[in-house]
Amino acid sequence: MTYELLSPAGSIEKMRFAFTYGADAVYAGAKAFSLREQAANFTVEELAEAVKYAHSLGKRLYLTTNIFFHNRHIKPFQDFIKEIAPLGVDGLIVSDLGMIAWLREKYPEIPIHVSTQANTTNVESCRFYEKLGVTRVILARELSLDEIREIRDAVTIELESFVHGAMCVAYSGRCLLSNYFTNPSIYRAGEKFSPGKTIRTRDANLGDCAQSCRWEYYLVEKSRQNQMIPFEETEHGTAILSSKDLNLASHLHKLMKAGINSFKIEGRMKSIYYVANVTRVYRHVIDTFLQGGTPSLEVLAELEKVSHREYTTGFYFPHNESLQVTNPHYLREYTFLAYVKETLPEGSLCQSMNQIRNTMMIEAILPQVKNILLEKKTFLLDGKETLLIQPNQEFILLGEKLPPYAILREVPSS
Prior knowledge:
It comes from Thermospira aquatica. InterPro entries: Peptidase_U32 (IPR001539), RNA/ubiquinone_mod_enzymes (IPR051454). The chain is an alpha/beta fold. It has three domains: 4-167 and 243-312, Aldolase class I (TIM Barrel); 171-230, no CATH class; 335-410, Beta Barrel (Elongation Factor Tu (Ef-tu), domain 3). Helix content is 24%, strand content 23%. It is built from ten helices and 22 strands. The protein has an eight-stranded parallel β-barrel, surrounded by five helices. The relative contact order is 0.12.
């Protein structure tokens, strides 16, 4: 049995990093019909370029078209599929049963992956999709490992599961909080708009979630509406709707034995650094387990060095681990500073992402799960040495010949 490591690609740039750091396949969204409207996403031209690039590496690209379709979306979607059908995407991720049936009839050559939004939780549903000609089912996140084994024993269809990243508090991601809290009809007269509220409804099931579950809420008594009473569970307050992030790196061998074909990392909205570092950790884990070994604790610790919420193993195991965060904020100690664009005779051509000072402790990370602490840091900007690099500047790191796609990060002082 072969296993696929599937990483997010919110843009062509992120796709390139995902493949460089060990992904077998990526999933990407177009400018419409994807559940990540705020991501950069791909134009048709970019999608053609991305598919060609993936196939040149012997890798795969899946396109997410997994919104819940309203009538107004059907004709534009059908026109879109006609345009992208010749490109050779390796699969369409779809949640809408009507669109799955239409695709099977009109474009039987395009593989269909049933989205996790479709909430597939049992053997009979998987058998139904198998008879329909679907290639893969992305299982609901609410399934236990025992339930996954039962499904694997009953069907030959490919099975995919999420193993890492943010989780929606709603059942299989079907949330109406964003729709409700951004609906103009519930705004009070004179209410000041916050960044989360707009003058239009933001539908999570159409890819425009306002992430209302991550907001901080207060209790208000009807006759005392100017007195907000906080929920206080810890010193950080209480995030009653916010879920921890999934992390199954140390348990991946159990999912492999249960019959999962593809291991999916969440994060099309995350940074290049996040995609690269998480991908290289799971690449190491899969390869190590296949060789009969045990993943390095030092490598697993890299998952603590990307921006994340508290971790959980979700619903896979019977010990009922809590999903609710105790700290509503992201945990982030390491800062993504820059990445290498080109190796030069005198050093490395880099693109900065954040401010960089030569007094920082800087580490370079490489795809082979290798980290290099930079002893000497000399920056060349527009031909002149400088002690400070600002965000979005192209500069040369003198004396360090790092390969393209190497990433620079700031190491926190101990």
